[in-house]
Amino acid sequence: MNMKKFALLPLGAMLLASCAASAVEPGTTQDAGWELAWSDEFDGSEIDRTKWDFDVDCWGGGNDERQCYTDSPRNAAIEDGKLVITARKERSEGLAFPPAIAAQPGNAQATKVQPFSSARLVTRGKAAWKYGKIEVRAKLPQGQGTWPAIWMLPEDNAYGGWARSGEIDILEAVNLGVPCEGCESGREDTILGTLHFGGGWPDNKLASTEISYPPMLDGGFHTFGVIWAEGSFTWTVDGKPFASRTADEWFTTESDDPNAPFDQRFHLILNLAIGGGLAERRGLGGVSDAGFPKRMEIDWVRVWQCSEDKATGKACIRDGDQ
């Protein structure tokens, strides 16, 4: 999830034809030495607060997004064994800044009004991982201005503030279903997998792959994942790889270690944004009021670590994973 005020641009885009051609049954990828380390199947009646916390503010993520994030059950709740994040078209008011920015002089009491409400769940302070395989089975909303994301931020910011300590975007999609001349199906069906790194804004860099994936328009659940080992990332959709990156493609200005900044623990984030740079500059432009409320449904979240090689995860990387 892009954290500053500029559009996310594709870099080195790549499409594996087999990705859209076939899919595997969800939950069948925990093989080749991967051991389940953490999961949430959302089987309870309420969100498990031992696993998840909420970011609550109206900041807009640094992208001019148009929602206030709340911890209200109107915006995030368990329904029929699924986590449902609901974005609503309603006047919302709250803190103008997240805690790190609010701590700066003069910001603590600042408030902001937004035209939408939504939710952003985080495992920060509760669970974080260094290397592993992360998969999330989710159903994404459609419509101009929608921006669901499954992503990770560093737990400790060992190399400093964004983007020096990195960011891992497992899945982003904007404006699904709207008319799209360049899309295979004629409607927006693009998914993105991205790394952010480099220096502090505006000296940050990114490496991003986006592909047309027509099954996104079927209105059903799909499994989005990343396989992360020392020096490599592979992004997957429905069990099929669609992008990969290696350590020679990233860096941080704060270390000469070739694996930095992606050699630290990262926590998981699930959110549904409305508007913002990436969404509003693409598709039909702006945000459509049609079809609210919008729902992002998450069936399960699963994190595996390599039982054969927890230090680097490399022993679990097989042919076809990169």
Could you walk me through the main structural features you see in this protein, from its secondary elements to its overall organization?
This protein has helices at residues 17-21, 99-102, 277-280; strands at residues 34-40, 53-54, 67-69, 76-79, 82-95, 111-118, 120-122, 132-139, 146-154, 167-172, 190-198, 204-212, 222-229, 232-237, 240-246, 266-274, 294-306. With 322 residues, it is mainly beta. The radius of gyration is 18 Å and the shape is globular. The model is unreliable at 2-30 (pLDDT under 50).
Q: Main beta sheet, described?
A: 10 strands, mixed
Alpha carbon gyration radius = 18 Å
CATH class of the domain at 31-54 and 120-316: Mainly Beta
Shape: globular
Residue share in β-strands: 35-45%
| Mean residue pLDDT | 91
| Class from helix and strand fractions | mainly beta
Distance between the termini: 23 Å
CATH architecture of the domain at 31-54 and 120-316: Sandwich
Give the SSE string. Answer: HEEEEEHEEEEEEEEEEEHE
| Unreliable runs | 2-30
The total beta strand count reads 17
Under CATH, the topology of the domain at 31-54 and 120-316 can be stated as Jelly Rolls
